[in-house]
Write a structure and sequence with these properties.
281 residues, alpha+beta, Beta-Lactamase, six-stranded antiparallel beta sheet, five-stranded antiparallel beta sheet, 8 helices, rod-shaped
Length: 281
Amino acid sequence: MTGIDRLYDVLEFLSTLREPEDAKVWSRVLEKTAASLGAASGGYLCSDAKTRLLTPFHAVGAEASSRVPVPSGEGICGWVARYREPALVADTASEPRYRRELDGPARTLMCLPVFDRLDFAGALVFADKDGGPFTPEDLRFAATVVQQTAMTLRRLRLEGMLNRVTAYNSSILDNLSGGFIAVDLRGHVMICNPAARRILAVQGDVTDLPIENALPNLPDLAAVLRLALSSKQTVKRRDLPWKLDGNPRLLGYSTLLIQDADGKFTGVGVTFQDITKPAAA
């Protein structure tokens, strides 16, 4: 298997991930990377920020199970933990940093730091490549795998957070007694909550429709949103008369600007209530 094929194999695995279970993912990545490199053994060690120990979590190979917690700065793995740099050792017998009781029995070693953004999270270590010592190309391959895995885990965590926030916000909007409609910069509907659908008698799914198409019987409200988009000005507590099935109705509404997390203008919204007075008995 060529280097690019090995990388594709790992990337295909990462593309199947759906949950950011860090320890399990790194353990599986360890197995696939060790097999791709032809390493006789390997280990994934988690970093403990309080004790500053690298604790073995998962191992492959007959000798790897003998690993013990590694203090920062001790052995090859501890050196990687302290300096946050990878280590490539062609001959452990002549390597002063090597500690058999910490790094495990090995003739050759390769150890790489694992990061969660800028925070040191652990290390991957590989020992005794079949056919000779680990090469700079092996290190480059493994470093790419580590980087891609870290990025995938971060993306999955962000997606999970976004889904939770979206579900929370959706729950709030769905339970509002008043109507809420939001449109994007094109004037297409992003949100039309249940109260808005009930008050305005909206039929069908109007998501991503131009606001005029979504509210064919209430062009004046569509115009309010278009004006807010073009002027980036909001209004408070305005009244809007309209008719529903030929019967006079009255909306009380306010508009608002919608911004993203960076403060960039992304659309406008309108909140409203049906303030039609009951007909006299």
